[in-house]
Each structure stands twice: as structure tokens, then as C-alpha cells.
Amino acid sequence: MSVSFTAVDFETANRSPASACAVGVVRVRDGEVVERATWLIHPPEGHDRFEPFNIQLHGVSPERVARAPHWRESLDRLVEFIGDDVVVAHNAGFDIGVIVAASRASQLPVPGMRYFCSLRLARTSYQLPSYKLPRAAAAAGYTLENHHDPLADAEACAAIVVDVARTGGFTDMNELASSSRVQIRDLEPEDAPNHDQLVADATF
């Protein structure tokens, strides 16, 4: 027996966290991956400019997302996949920030969820020169061959959490969080923003 959770990784079209263009999700039950999914996303209007640097990084281009689902459909699918799980991500503030920013940009309610950072966990669990995802995943016994592919990154993130949980004999995320002193945080749900809030966000 080991931990259960859902690992998530987003890629973005540009520096805006609202510019989600791809996502990978991995469901883990008792330390084993039981389901995987990945899909492209058409970024929200106003955040759909693709920077050459980002395209080179992850290979997602405007042409590839031309017929991809928009954020509304993607968010529904994501929330359904996650269910009541704790969401795990490497540098979770970024990925949770994508959910918040893309939802606000699309005038959708921000969903509530609990989330946990595998980057913080790696820093408390391994002695490494770098805690970037490929190096931290390697310490967990996972070879990340396609970094910035969202599904591969989600699997690498999951491997870190599973490895630390198994090494420590932890059987749930609360126990792992308490022992590692890496807090499970809460994303509080928000109503859909009104026009004034959208203007304020755009000029922030």
C-alpha cells in the first residue's frame, strides 16, 4: 500500500499563466499509475499568442491547437479526472496558477482543490545539485526522456511522490505531508470574474 493522488503538468503558449496549451494527468492508486490522459488546449482569447521559445520547448504550435478544446471543456475534463484527489505538480504554484489564470481569463469559476508540490518534497527528501524535474525524477528511479511533454512530466512528478512515500512507508498523502513538512495547500473556489475584475487582471 502507498499513496493515491493525481499528478498534473501544464505547458503554456507564452509567459502568461493563462495561456494553457497542453496538459498531462496521471492517476495514482496505492503507488501505481492506473490511468493517464493528455490533450491539447486552445488557449483563452487574449492569451493565445505562441512565443517561439515556448514552441521550441514543448513542440505545441498554433496549428496543433487550432481545433483543440477551449479551456471550458478542458477544465471540465480536468476536474472530472481529478475528482477528490490531492493534485500533485512539480513547482505546484505554476500549475495551480495556470488553472486559476486560464479560468479567470475564460470567465469561469475557479475550482476548489487540494494540491501538493513534488519540488518541495524532493528538496526535503534528496540531496541533489539541482531539483529540476529530470534530476529529481532520476533520484526517484524514473528516467524522463521527453521533458516538457506534459504526460511524461506528470509521470515523472508522480514517480517522485511514490518513491518518497514508499521509502518512508507512508500510506496516504496527509501522512506524507506531515512527515516531510511539505504542506497540502487549498485552492479556494472562486466565482466567475466580472468585467471589472478581468480588466484589473489584464492591467496587473
From TrEMBL:
Annotated InterPro entries: Ribonucl_H, RNaseH-like_sf, RNaseH_sf
GO MF annotations, alphabetized: exonuclease activity
UniProt KW keywords: Exonuclease, Hydrolase, Nuclease
Upper taxonomic lineage: Bacteria, Bacillati, Actinomycetota, Actinomycetes, Micrococcales
Ranges of residues in domain Exonuclease: 4-170
Protein name (Swiss-Prot/TrEMBL): 3'-5' exonuclease
Matches recorded under CDD domains: DNA_pol_III_epsilon_like (cd06130)
Species per Swiss-Prot/TrEMBL record: Gulosibacter sediminis
Pfam family, one: RNase_T
Superkingdom of source: Bacteria
Gene3D superfamilies: Ribonuclease H-like superfamily/Ribonuclease H
